[in-house]
Amino acid sequence: MEKIKKESSLGPMGDKMGCCKVESIISIDERGQMVLPKELREKANIHPGDKLALICLEKKGEIYCLSLVKVGELTEMVKDLLGPVMEAMER
Length: 91
What we know:
This protein is an alpha+beta fold.
């Protein structure tokens, strides 16, 4: 079996997004729970009580990518996307 290199680059995601990479390998326990490693939580500035949105990318009926986004960041992303649309509708 081929070893996965930590921080293996998966390619550019655009100038704003940076690069996607494997940070760690995690397991799901019998209750369906997972633990984000402390180093990753610290790097991502995730604290107890923070809210994260789970975003799924689906293709042909199967989920192939899961992404966690802080709710505050997601709110800003939506405002950035919909702000110009809302402004145009008000004209």
